[in-house]
Write a structure and sequence with these properties.
The structure is a single chain. The chain contains eight helices and six strands. The chain has two domains: 30-106; 137-221, Jelly Rolls (Sandwich). The longest helix has 27 residues, at 77-103. It starts with 5 loop residues before the first helix and ends in a 6-residue tail after the last helix. A hairpin with a 2-residue loop joins strand 3 (167-171) and strand 4. The chain is of the alpha+beta class. A three-stranded antiparallel beta sheet has the order 1-6-2. It is found in: Membrane. The chain crosses the membrane at residues 81-99. Keywords: Membrane, Transmembrane, Transmembrane helix. Pfam families: POPDC1-3. This is Popeye domain-containing protein 3.
């Protein structure tokens, strides 16, 4: 058997990749590090509408700095183009999130309720808007000494919040406590029932002064999507 003629086959033997003979001296510059700082803090944003606005604002700043850095570096056309495209995408997301925030508006009572209660509970503006839409944004009035519910007779089928005024709660004619604005009227009854259980009020809330309240039918409230 004749020996194989490697030269005649014209085979190319792969060579090892070039080694880095020496590290580049000095730092990449302040703009490069500033971009990565923006990226670091940007990815700490949450998933709410304000969190998305925070996230994409810092990402836009980071990619803008990356674009400036790539523009000043020779032989970095690809980095410049990708940074520029991603900067445009993030900037568009910032404008979209800002538009969504401006489009979500409430009546004065609901805005105060959101700031005092729901915002502290971590409820996003968009989710609160869905809750308001579920009740069609209706505010109900309660005249002084008029009962919101009758003890042992009124079914527990709604969840209510006092917006203004004051409500007096009694049991068997004995005074228990007052309910003040931005407090729930029927949270004890709500907590005492299982999801599929029905019940009646065990106390009697009545308006101590002219009051306004906002309530939801429980069956409708359960249909609100939280995502």
């Amino acid at each position: 058997m004749e020996p194989l003629d490697v030269a005649a086959l014209n085979l190319t033997v792969p060579t090892a990749p070039p080694l880095c003979e020496r590290w580049r001296g000095g730092s990449e510059g302040a703009v490069f590090h500033l971009a990565n700082i923006f990226f670091f803090f940007g990815f700490t944003g949450g998933s709410s509408l304000y969190g998305l606005l925070y996230l994409f604002t810092l990402l836009s700043a980071g990619f803008f700095c990356s674009t400036l850095w790539a523009w000043s570096e020779p032989c970095s056309t690809d980095s410049f183009l990708w940074s520029l495209v991603l900067f445009g995408v993030c900037l568009a997301q910032v404008l979209h999130a800002g538009y969504r925030l401006r489009s979500v508006t409430f009546q004065k009572e609901f805005q105060e309720l959101y700031n005092c209660v729901f915002k502290k509970l971590g409820v996003s503006v968009t989710l609160f808007a869905k809750i308001v839409a579920c009740s069609e944004g209706e505010v109900h009035s309660l005249e002084p000494d008029h009962c919101f519910a009758v003890e042992g007779r009124t079914a527990i089928d709604k969840l209510s919040v006092l917006l203004s005024g004051r409500v007096r709660v009694t049991v068997n004619g004995e005074f228990l406590h007052f309910i003040h604005p931005f407090q729930f009227l029927d949270s004890p009854e709500w907590d005492s029932l299982r999801p599929s259980e029905e019940g009646l009020f065990q106390d009697q809330p009545a308006a101590a002064a002219g009051s306004e309240l906002w309530f939801h039918i429980i069956s409708k409230l359960k249909t609100v999507k939280t995502f």
